[in-house]
Amino acid sequence: MTAPTAPASPSARYRTLGLAAALFVMVAYFGGEWLLDNLIQGPIEVARGRRTQLERDVQQRETSLRRLREAGKLLARWEDQSLPADTEVARSLYQAWLVELVDDVGLASPSVTSSEPVARAGLYYTLSFSVRARGTLEELTQFLFAFYQADLLHQLRSLTITPLQRSEELDLSLAVETLILQPAGAA
User: Mean pLDDT for the chain?
Assistant: First the structure.
């Protein structure tokens, strides 16, 4: 048998109740903090992070879309400046234009020749032309001005100027390159 225990003194009972209350407050505080962090604040932070990432993704996609639209406009402009897609027609038209330009500015003894079209990455062709003529510096300047005023995809690759003795005329040799873009739907 066990001996009966003496009733606890009131001060011991208050101490036990005080310790139990302190323990309850600590458990409530730390448990509440854990609940607040894991059940309320945690999901809110995850949602904020996800929202920030989604906003970044939307901004990147809008930037990409804007760049694609700008590239589309640029491509459309280049297609307008390009020679016709048929390389033989393009060669004939551009050679005729060069001969007409040489005649318009008054260059003498013109000779305009072209090479075969060269395919580049299946996206476009390059056509090279050679122009030989004689003329003055003023006529050359007029030719270059008219050449660069034309809204075409072409460029002067080289220019050789040789002064002729006892004359104000120059022997001119120009290498010209032009592009033929394939239409957007043809690739």
Answer: 85
Here the tokens at position 22 are 């302190």
- Cα(117)–Cα(83) distance, integer angstroms: 12
End-to-end alpha carbon distance in the chain:
102
DSSP conformation class of 36:
I
Helices 137-149 and 87-105, axial angle in degrees (round to 10): 140
Instruction: Give the residue among 178, 108, 107 at the shortest CA–CA distance from 148.
Output: 178
Query: What is the average pLDDT across 123-151?
Result: 91
d(CA 104, CA 146): 10
3-class SS at 170?
strand
> Residue 168: which of 108, 102, 104 has the closest Cα?
108
Rounded to an integer, what distance in angstroms lies between the CA atom of residue 170 and that of residue 142? 14
This prediction has a pTM of: 0.63
Is the CB of residue 136 less than 8 Å from the CB of residue 169?
yes
